[in-house]
Design goal:
This protein is mostly helical and 231 residues long. The protein is built from 11 helices and no strands. It starts with a helix and ends with a helix.
Length: 231
């Protein structure tokens, strides 16, 4: 029984640590989004997260370490459900990101840091490289499954799409049109994919902006089912 009680306390402590880290990241995302890297204040972050400064330093060594964690959160935060078509998975990554960005302060802070050249000491290229690698992996599997035309180079196309998407995103933010990113992402796929996707596969893809919201609901439903006790 003592072991069971000890294990229960350990699980509780781990759960609290996960929640505390998440609260710090979300608060940091909001502050970085508002202020940028150099002007962001750790005191404001801990106040918004409702944690102590000691708790922040338990999880993150300094502001740079925290900013890097926020930057990397944009990848872990976009996890659409698997699909029968690899190219639908490829599209879903972009549409879910476009839906979540205006609604998620952590993702907004991550993107602001990626574009924020005032924080030059940050490794700003790492999110791009990670997105390219993730997309190239999906595209490689799509090509192996016969969904892409024979001439397509998966890595080159992944590099091109990530760069084009970043440009569309940057322009949407500069023009104050974050809410229009879904439509622009949909247009990007609509115009680029006919050059690389097998026609029969292309005709089956859902490229509509509203798919992002649908994917978010599916993700939340899936997480809710995983959280239910099993007996």
């Amino acid at each position: 029984m003592w072991q069971t009680m000890k294990d229960g306390r350990l699980v509780g402590m781990q759960d609290r640590a996960v929640r505390t880290r998440r609260a710090i990241l979300e608060a940091a995302g909001a502050v970085f989004d508002k202020c940028g890297y150099e002007s962001a204040n750790l005191n404001e972050i801990v106040s918004l997260a409702a944690v102590s400064k000691g708790a922040l330093y338990f999880h993150f060594r300094n502001k740079e370490d925290l900013a890097l964690a926020v930057m990397h959160a944009q990848l872990s935060g976009v996890q659409p459900q698997p699909q029968m078509s690899r190219m639908q998975e490829f599209v879903d990554l972009g549409l879910l990101f476009a839906y979540r960005l205006p609604r998620d302060p952590l993702m907004r802070g991550s993107v602001r840091l990626t574009f924020d050249y005032a924080g030059r000491e940050l490794s700003q290229g790492s999110p791009y490289l990670s997105w390219i690698e993730r997309n190239a992996d999906i595209l490689s599997r799509a090509k192996a499954g016969g969904e892409l035309l024979p001439h397509v180079d998966a890595e080159a196309f992944a590099d091109l799409v990530v760069g084009a998407y970043a440009g569309v995103n940057m322009m949407a933010q500069a023009l104050g049109r974050r809410d229009a990113l879904e439509a622009r992402a949909s247009d990007l796929y609509r115009y680029l994919l006919p050059a690389v996707v097998v026609p029969a596969v292309l005709a089956s893809l859902d490229l509509e902006p509203g798919r992002g919201e649908k994917l978010q609901r599916e993700s939340e439903d899936h997480a809710g089912r995983l959280a239910l006790p099993h007996g």
